[in-house]
Write a structure and sequence with these properties.
Chain lengths: 83, 83, 83, 83
């Protein structure tokens, strides 16, 4: 269950496209050689990048707030992708 | 614990930079107005996007293989970001 | 009657726009800082770059086919911008 | 002695490269399909675009200041690419 850079690039490319960043998507399609991937476009749901990031943030939050004995640490700090 | 598009854009921008996609990063810095964000660059670790995607994939895998009674479903299928 | 790089850049930018090279025009508007020019857009006719290149090619052709005594050299060679 | 769009594109591409507009040159190489041209790179001198524009401006100036009888019109107005 590992991640390849081809997969990350494809998710990023789809995010750029779906978000209307057309110039960036154009540059990335060439610089990232997105066309050479053998990922099936139909297998990637719209919003996949954001959906995985949300799950990833949730996972990170669980990790961060778990005590060694399995109980949950109480915490009032904000928790987010870039904090 | 929600995600803003500013945060996603910034993680994507950093990924593009760190991966050497300089033309794409240039386009995105302008099209995504990355300079206008108030995210603290120092607060975002190198490799953050991939790290969150990995956790997100793990979370998705747990969700996908959990039976209703809390036991783990046995499964031989490949599981990945774009499958 | 000299040419500034601001002028060349602006003619190139207009050419890119008018020719439908939208991604390139986007990149150039930022990389060439076209917005900072004080050239009056209304003063530049559509097709200006190509029109000047055509006159320039004509001028170069006259130069190339003029004998020292002012008469025209006969010549059957092709003559063009990139030859 | 005509000009093709392939020729104009190639001169513009070389100008972008020589002037250090690397992101724009990257976008144009793909959007303008510069690689598909059959122009010989060695046949195009450095600075070709600007050189032709200078000759074109000179030609335009001669045209603009020529009286019908072949004498030169006196004129104190500035004359330039974007005026």
């Amino acid at each position: 269950m590992s991640i390849t850079s081809d997969e990350v690039n494809y998710l990023v490319f789809r995010y750029l496209q779906e978000s209307g960043f057309h110039h960036t998507a154009f540059a990335f399609s060439h610089e990232g050689q997105i066309g050479r991937t053998n990922i099936d476009p139909a297998a990637v749901a719209p919003g996949a990048l954001v959906s995985y990031l949300q799950k990833g943030l949730q996972y990170a939050s669980i990790e961060a707030h778990l005590n060694d004995d399995g109980t949950e640490a109480s915490c009032d700090e904000p928790f987010g992708l870039t904090i």
